[in-house]
Amino acid sequence: MELFFRYVRENWVDLLVFTGQHIMMVLIGLLLALVVGIPLGIMASRNRVSARIILTVANIIQVFPSLALLVLLMVAFGLGTTTVVVGLFLYSLLPVIRNTYVGLTQVDKSIMEAGKGVGMSPLQIMINVQLPLALPFMLTGIRIAAVIAIGVATIAPLVGGDGLGREIYSGINMNNSARLYAGAIPAAILALLADLALERLQNATRVAGR
User: Fold this and answer.
1) Residue 3: its pLDDT value, please?
2) Residue 78 Ramachandran class (φ > 0 left, ψ -120 to 50 alpha, else beta)
3) For the ABC transmembrane type-1 domain, which residue ranges apply (predicted)?
4) CA angle (74, 77, 82) in 5-degree steps
5) How many CB atoms are located within 10 Å of the residue 192 CB?
């Protein structure tokens, strides 16, 4: 551990840069998954046929091993961060779509009927009733997607990406445990912090919903 702490003291600037790169890749991939996944989840909740098609395609994407998916994407997008971000986007889709779908379909029908009774349009019911009540479920999906994305991002260097994975693979190739831990420990901390922050937000929305 002494070697690890010495390495961190000597290279903390580079580690901060790698951590920032790691966070940016995850945030962009997750944001894209939200922009695409939430509308797909809404679409799935409105029609059973659409639900089967959308969830099946998302499940197929999730089944692909992360490295195999990134290699396939590399053929289309080349080496670099773009391939990693697209991979994180695709890997984050299923939790976002599925939990949006589940959350919307779990809303009590009587509440929706009450909305209709006071003259709300279907769009108003969706925005003002269904989505707020489904938010805790949706946050669960975002929480799962964030943790998955942080983990998958560690293999980014294998397809020319940046982030903390650079230290992990440098440590493995050079048989340098200090570099390995310098990449792995911050990545693990990022995953724990993301999970904790989203869990608290999820609990807050549940309390507000009650």
Assistant:
1) 80
2) left
3) 19-202
4) 95
5) 12
Distance of alpha carbon 176 from alpha carbon 165, whole angstroms: 14
Q: How distant is the alpha carbon of residue 39 from its chain centre?
A: 16
Cα separation of the two ends of the chain: 47
> Which of 79-83, 197-201, 205-209 has the least mean pLDDT?
205-209
Domain residue extents for the chain: 2-209
- Average pLDDT score over residue span 33-60: 92
CA proximity to 36, closest of 185, 155, 141: 141
Q: Are 140 and 99 in contact (CB under 8 A)?
A: yes
* pLDDT tens digits for range 120-149: 877 788 888 888 888 989 999 999 999 999
Predicted TM-score (pTM) of this structure: 0.89
Cα dist from 30 to 24, 85, 130, 175, whole Å? 10, 9, 22, 33
Q: Which helix (H) or strand (E) holds 94?
A: helix 81-105
Residue 209 pLDDT > 70: no
Is there a contact between 143 and 202 (Cβ–Cβ < 8 Å)? yes
153 close to 163: Cβ distance less than 8 angstroms? yes
Is the sign of the CA dihedral 84, 163, 148, 105 positive or negative?
negative
Fold of 2-209: MetI-like fold (1.10.3720)
